[in-house]
Each structure stands twice: as C-alpha cells, then as structure tokens.
C-alpha cells in the first residue's frame, strides 16, 4: 500500500464527504478508492470513516488522523518543491473560485500571461457569487470582494476597489439627475441581497465626515452581481458597484455615474486560502501573480 496515496485519498473523502466524489476528484476508479481505505484502516487498526446512505464522515480517530494527514501532505509538497526543479516550474492542478465579474473582466483575459509563465499548472476556474467551502469542495484559493469574515482562512489583500454610484439614462430621464445627498429622497435603488447571508445592502455615502447608509425604496431586489447591473441598466434604480465592473457600460453609455462628489466606500479584494495551502507553491505563484495583476494600470481596480 502506498501510504501517502492512501492519505491523499482519505483526505479527499473527508473533504468531499463521499467515496464516489473523491474518486472522481482524483480521477481514480471508485473500487480502488474503497480498497485503499480498507487497507489504510487495517494498517492503522482503527476505523477512520463512518458510512451512511447519505454521506461519509470521519470518526473521532479519523478526524484526528485527517488533521495530521493534511499537514504531512502539505509538508511533503513543500519539501518536493524545494529539492526539485518544480520550484522553478510549479506543476499540478490549481482550483480557484472567484466572482463572475472579476473572472470575466479581469482575471481570465489576463490568464495567458500566467499560463505562459507556469505552463505546467493546470487551472480550474469557478465563476460565481456564492460562498465556497474550500475544504469540502476541494478549492485551493478564492477571490472575494468585501471583508474576509472567515477567520479560519489566510487572507492576502489584493486591492482596494473604487466604487461608483450608477444609474441608467432611461431612469434619469424619468426621475431626474440627483446632484446632492438630499436629492436621493426622490429616487429608488436596486437592492442587492447576499445569497450567503440574506443581508440586504443599500447605498452608502460619506456625508459630513461620517458614513451613512441610505435605504431608498427598491425598484427590484437581486442576489447576483450580473443581475444587479442588468436591473440598473433596465431602469429599476440606482446602484453602487466597483469601477472595474462598470467600465464597459460607462463606455457604451448604458450606465452613467451620478453624485461623483459624494464619496462611496472602497471595497477590499482579497485572495483567501486554507492555512495548510499557504506552503503550496502553486497557490503562492498564483496569488503573487494576482497581486501584480491588480496593480496593473487599466484593470479598473484602482482609479
């Protein structure tokens, strides 16, 4: 039995909570995964996994063994990177998740540069606005806008994104162009609802040296960034969004910036990854590349 391979299989079963999912993730026959776990449990003399009809979960011994396996496998990867040519040429699969707007407009268009630098890294990119369970879903790194609330993850700041207050020309023709904070009383907004927490977001401005949240009557409520922009373009009200995401609409004239003299809070953009992945060379080079990308003029992340 290859014990390191068995550990790798075991950790994926714990993370994905199933033998079949782990086998598919590792591109192994399902029968081989079952045999490896039986051999591993026999070798250790303990039961590592509890199997039910719905999912697989670790026993108390299995949970303790999982933590040790994660650290050992991470240490092994780092050691191999130090004493092999892979330090100069990192290789393997890197799974990354990010908001659809960041992916479509900034990261993916620039990826040819990354793949040219690191041709032996195979990227798997997920684009969505929902929260991702990095451990359970086998994701190495995520990009997220806003505050990083999960203290179990390592956060690497990438940028502070400027935000704008926006409206469509058809909306402004109907409701007029607001020129002051007081004018907002005659307007409505598109409400953004977090798909993760259900929190509802209004508009926020700096007035008199203090941040004030304004909850205007809502023309529509949505739970995705693409829907947020679509609703604004359709004339349902004002929105606030990162500058990078509005560059094309501003250039095309489908959206217009309003109240430019009223400051809007910047939005933090961070790369997040589990603590045991911070030694991974693949994660390191990708996050370093993201830092470089976010500092590049013309991305729209900084004005």
UniProtKB/TrEMBL annotation:
Record-annotated HTH lysR-type domain positions: 1-59
Domain of life of the source: Bacteria
Protein keywords: DNA-binding, Transcription, Transcription regulation
Gene3D superfamilies, alphabetized: 3.40.190.290, Winged helix-like DNA-binding domain superfamily/Winged helix DNA-binding domain
A Pfam family: HTH_1
InterPro entries on file: LysR-type_TF_proteobact-type (IPR058163), LysR_HTH_N (IPR000847), LysR_subst-bd (IPR005119), WH-like_DNA-bd_sf (IPR036388), WH_DNA-bd_sf (IPR036390)
Similarity section: Belongs to the LysR transcriptional regulatory family.
Name by which UniProt lists this protein: LysR family transcriptional regulator
Organism: Pseudomonas simiae
Higher taxonomy: Bacteria, Pseudomonadati, Pseudomonadota, Gammaproteobacteria, Pseudomonadales
């Amino acid at each position: 039995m290859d014990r390191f391979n068995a550990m790798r299989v075991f950790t994926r079963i714990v993370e994905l909570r199933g033998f079949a999912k782990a086998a598919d993730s590792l591109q192994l026959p399902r029968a081989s995964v079952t045999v490896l776990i039986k051999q591993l449990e026999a070798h250790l003399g303990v039961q590592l996994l509890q199997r039910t009809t719905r999912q697989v979960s670790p026993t108390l011994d299995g949970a303790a063994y999982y933590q040790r396996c994660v650290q050992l496998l991470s240490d092994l990867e780092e050691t191999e990177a130090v004493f092999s040519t892979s330090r100069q040429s990192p290789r393997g699969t890197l799974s990354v998740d990010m908001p659809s707007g960041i992916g479509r407009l900034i990261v993916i268009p620039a990826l040819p540069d990354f793949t040219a630098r690191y041709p032996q890294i195979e990227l798997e990119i997920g684009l969505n606005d929902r929260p991702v369970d990095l451990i359970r879903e086998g994701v190495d790194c995520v990009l997220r806008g806003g505050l990083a609330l999960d203290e179990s993850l390592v956060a690497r700041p990438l940028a502070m994104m400027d935000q704008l207050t926006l409206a469509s020309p058809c909306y402004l023709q109907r409701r007029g162009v607001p020129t002051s904070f007081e004018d907002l009383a005659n307007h409505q907004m598109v409400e953004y609802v977090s798909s993760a927490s259900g929190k509802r977001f209004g508009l926020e401005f700096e007035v008199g040296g203090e941040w004030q949240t304004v909850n205007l009557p809502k023309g529509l409520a949505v739970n995705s960034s693409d829907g947020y922009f679509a609703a604004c373009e359709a004339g349902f009200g004002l929105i606030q969004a990162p500058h990078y995401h509005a560059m094309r609409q501003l250039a095309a004239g489908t959206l217009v910036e309003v109240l430019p003299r009223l400051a809007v809070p910047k939005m933090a953009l961070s790369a997040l990854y589990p603590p045991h992945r911070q030694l991974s060379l693949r994660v390191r080079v990708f996050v370093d590349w993201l830092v470089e990308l976010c500092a590049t003029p013309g991305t729209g992340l900084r004005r």
